[in-house]
Amino acid sequence: TQLLEQSPQFLSIQEGENLTVYCNSSSVFSSLQWYRQEPGEGPVLLVTVVTGGEVKKLKRLTFQFGDARKDSSLHITAAQPGDTGLYLCAGVGNYGQNFVFGPGTRLSVLP
Amino acid sequence: NAGVTQTPKFQVLKTGQSMTLQCAQDMNHEYMSWYRQDPGMGLRLIHYSVGAGITDQGEVPNGYNVSRSTTEDFPLRLLSAAPSQTSVYFCASSYTPWTSGRRTGELFFGEGSRLTVL
């Protein structure tokens, strides 16, 4: 069983602060995805990283895939209350359709 | 813009009762799956299907059955509900990467079904 760990589990910060959350595994994945989930809704895909060492930016969010394709990080610059939610990483295995999720990081950004 | 539709949104059962959670998607996705979400444990895969007539077990299949008679529908059946099945259930679908010209799929989730078993 491929397991993903995420840290921290909970994070509460003030608006305007920067933060980084981590996703780690002992297994290699063909790609890794980050989803955000808001209360009462299903997760929504933010980004997919495919190549080891890849960095992708989505406005104030920066995603990095580790060189060995076992870990990833999500950095948020100048966090806003709208960033509040549960951030889930998912490792994608064979054929691009086997998704394994981490336990998530619950982020709260206070105004 | 229906996407993935789950019903019901809320359900309370007594131990031993049976029920079916419905899931339908209108995106012509081949891949469909059911997850359960429990505090601190993320999303755990129950069953999945890569096309009509094909289903397979995920990480936590015990106590659940599925079938896939059409591309659109993927119902999840609880045959004899137990308190350990109290959870939020999500249905998700994905396009097939290799027929879409992409390296990987993307899961589209429903809004979830909150189930309580007393």
Quick synopsis:
The complex is a heterodimer of chains A (111) and B (118). Chain A is an all-beta fold and 111 residues long.
Identify the notable features of this structure and list them briefly.
heterodimer; A: 111 residues; mainly beta; six-stranded mixed β-sheet; 55% strand; B: mainly beta; 3% helix
Explain what you see.
The complex is a heterodimer of chains A (111) and B (118). Chain A has no helices and 11 strands. Chain A has strands at residues 4-7, 10-14, 19-25, 31-37, 44-49, 55-58, 61-65, 71-76, 85-92, 99-101, 105-110. In chain A, the strands form 2 sheets. In chain A, strands 2, 4, 5, 9, 10 and 11 form a 6-stranded mixed β-sheet that branches. In chain A, strands 1-3-8-7-6 form a 5-stranded antiparallel β-sheet, with no helix packed on it. Chain A is globular. The model of chain A has no long low-confidence stretch (mean pLDDT 92). Chain B is mainly beta and 118 residues long. In chain B, strands 2, 4, 5, 6, 9, 10 and 11 form a 7-stranded mixed β-sheet that branches. A 4-stranded antiparallel β-sheet of chain B has the order 1-3-8-7, with no helix packed on it. In chain B, strand 4 (31-37) and strand 5 (43-51) form a beta hairpin.
Main sheet summary of chain B: 7 strands, mixed
Structural category of chain B is mainly beta
Q: Report the end-to-end length of chain A measured between terminal Cα atoms.
A: 40 Å
The percentage of residues in β strands of chain B lies in: over 45%
Q: Which bin fits the share of residues in helices of chain B? A: under 10%
